[in-house]
Structures are given as C-alpha cells and as structure tokens.
Amino acid sequence: MHLLEYQAKELFREIGIPVLPAQRIDHPTDIKGLQIPYPVVLKSQVSTCGDNPARRIRCVENTIDAIAAARAIFKLPILGKHPQVLLAESRYNAEQEFYLAVFLDYNLARPVLLGSSQGRMDTKALISDMQKVVVEQNFSPFYGRRLAIKMGLHGNLIESVSGIINKMYQLFVQKDLDIVEINPLGVSPTGELMALDGRIAINDKALRRHQDLINLTSTMAESGSYQDMPTNSSHNFNGRDLKGNIGIICNSMCLAATTVDLVYQAKGKPRQCHLVPTINSNQYWPITPAGIEELQEALRKLTTSEGIKVVLVNILSNRATSNAAAEMIANYLLSQSWETAVLNSENQEHNSTSHPLSSHHQDLLSKGKSPGSASGIERPHLVIRLVGTNFHSIQQRLAQLPVHFTDNLDEAVKQAVSIARKGSRRPNLVI
What we know:
Blueprint: H1 5-15, E1 22-25, E2 40-44, H2 53-56, E3 57-60, H3 63-74, E4 86-90, E5 96-105, E6 110-116, H4 123-128, E7 131-134, H5 141-150, H6 156-174, E8 177-187, E9 193-195, E10 198-202, H7 211-223, E11 235-236, E12 246-250, H8 253-265, E13 270-275, H9 289-303, E14 310-315, H10 319-334, H11 359-364, E15 381-386, H12 392-397, E16 403-404, H13 409-422, E17 429-430
Parallel strand pairs: 12-13, 12-14, 14-15, 15-17, 16-17
Antiparallel strand pairs: 1-4, 2-3, 2-4, 5-6, 5-8, 6-7, 8-9, 8-10, 11-13
C-alpha cells in the first residue's frame, strides 16, 4: 500500500531527509490559518502517485487565490476519487532535480539503489538515464557514493546526495518497506537539497511490527484518502465502477493510476485494475518467473470476468521484460481455444548471501505465485501497450489475428475505449 505524499514526507522528516515547511489542509477554510508564507503550492492527496501533475497541483500567491484553488482541487476527482486532504507547502526554486529510489530486487535477491540526474522527467526519458547499484554486502556509505558518482555528480553533491541515499536505505530497512522513492530531489542554486515529492510503499505483512505505520494507514482508511492497493501481489480494484467494461493490467501503482486516469478522460469506464508489481518498471534485470505467473494470472482473471469487454494491458519495463511479456501473451492467444497459456518457466534460485535486511525482506524473496488456469468462456478484446523493444517475431506469430503494435499509451487508451463502446467480441490485439 502507498502512503500519501504528506505522510511519506513525515517519515522523511523523522529520518532526517529535508522536506519543505508544510501544512495539512482538510477544508478550504483551513487556508485562513495557514502558517506558511506565500507563495504556496497546494497538492491534491490521493493515493495515485502517477496522475497528471497539472490536475493536482496549484501555485497560489495569496489567501483569496489559495481558498479558491483549494475548493477547486477538492472538487477535482483523480481516478474517480475526490481528495479528502490537501498538502500546502512552500514553493521551491530548484536549479537541478534528481530521481532516487531504494527497493528490493526479487531476481537478484538484493536491495537495489536507483538514481537519475533527470528527476521529474517523463518515464521513458527517466529510464534511459537510470543508474543502478546493487547492495551486494552489508550496506555502507560506499554504496550511496557509488550511485552518486554513476549519476554523474561532482564535488559537494556527491557527499550530500549520497547522504540522502543512506537515509533512504535506513528508512527502507527500519520500516520493512517495499519502496522508498524521491522524485524529484531538488537542488537549490546554493546546493541545498530538498525532497520535493516522495513515494513510500508499505508491505501489508510487515504492518503488525510497526505501530506508527498502522496509525498512518488507519487514518487514511478512515478519511477515505486511501484505496487499499498492495504492491506485493496481483490485486484488483473491484467496485470502482461496477458499470464499467474495461479491465486494466499494469506493473506499477503509478502506471495504473495514469492509465485509469486516461481512460476516464477518454470517457471510458474502468471496471477492474490488476497490478503485477513483480514486473518492476524501474528495473533493468530480466523478468522473474513470478512476474510471468502474475501477468498470466491477471490476464486470465480479467479475460474471464463477467462484464469486461476490453482488457487494456500497459507494461512499462526493459527490453528483455517487454519481450518476455509479449511472448507470454502470444502463447496465451495462440493456445488451443485461447484457454490455456503455454509458457514454461524454470524456477530460479535466489542468492543466499547474507545481507542486512529484516526477516520480512528476506521472506519476500522466497515467495512466488502459481499460475492460474483459464476457463472456456467468451473472451474480451485485448489492447496491449508495451515499450522498449520491437515485436517483429511476435507480429509474425500473430499474423492471423488483427494486431496493431504501438508504444503510445494515448493511442492504446483511445482504441480500448473505442472497442468498449462498440461492444464487438471479435479478437483484437494492440501491442
């Protein structure tokens, strides 16, 4: 599950990561008691992490404008959900912006540090500039410095940025987190660092060991600001729109949020959304058997779910993973009666080298899922968007099917919504 931005920043503040002066806003009238000097930035707090920033952020110069902006943001739904809380914080003029993240690599069985000198970029540009450092042994400041140098940083920035990385890793281990991400980390003209936006994913199974996190998530549930969307297993969001007819499969919360939001903007109606988070959009390593199994199971569930006319699959990852995902989908479609995916994956042994992770993180590395079997009911259309490679061989295998290859998300969403409106059941694949 993902914390809201203001809650993630509370944890940042506790661990010593610099954040801006901020204030929680529960109602537009709270603006009158704002203790932060103008200009101020108002941010919608909905657990999406991937929505269009233009729809959730407003810069204001005075109280009158701030109250008007707050009223507008509270009325502005994201993924069909209205924010219950806003975050008001000081405006920050950054000269540079970086991307930093810490999370667990299930394939290497190691924690991984990610960094890019191009923070707040679009996803494709960000991935092309991404640097990775695997924590091979007990963590030390060496790993943070190594990542900073690989990012191309120089002088004092190496020390200051590596210090932020060290604190992110400390938070990651102490709280048994799935991911700690800062995007962007702003750098002022004087070299001051500031976490301008943050994302923290908590693992449900570790909550019982952290009362402070339980209190945070309980507050979110009570306020309605949080939609339970765990990242450690394939999960669906039933009930968002029971009259919807579009199923969605994505490999990250951010990507799912963006995809669902675009479907709503195109006047489409999402019904369910499945996450396959073991196919990680920020990683360069090959897809794991667990990732293939989760994708296969999510595809089986949505293609056999009543009321779904179109399944929109949006997977963003590296070349090897995109090829593996396309291969799995092709096998699924070409199997007899489109009933059983034909895919054999050998189990991979995890690196057993000791490392300074909690028992929770170590347990996660040994878990997998069993592929599901498909039923023989009538199937919906498939609209699939994959990026990072070409699909000439897959296209040849699917020559007898109407196939359209694309790496454009807007195009994929447009076609999915169009097919859903027509309601035709003729097989259709857009990759």
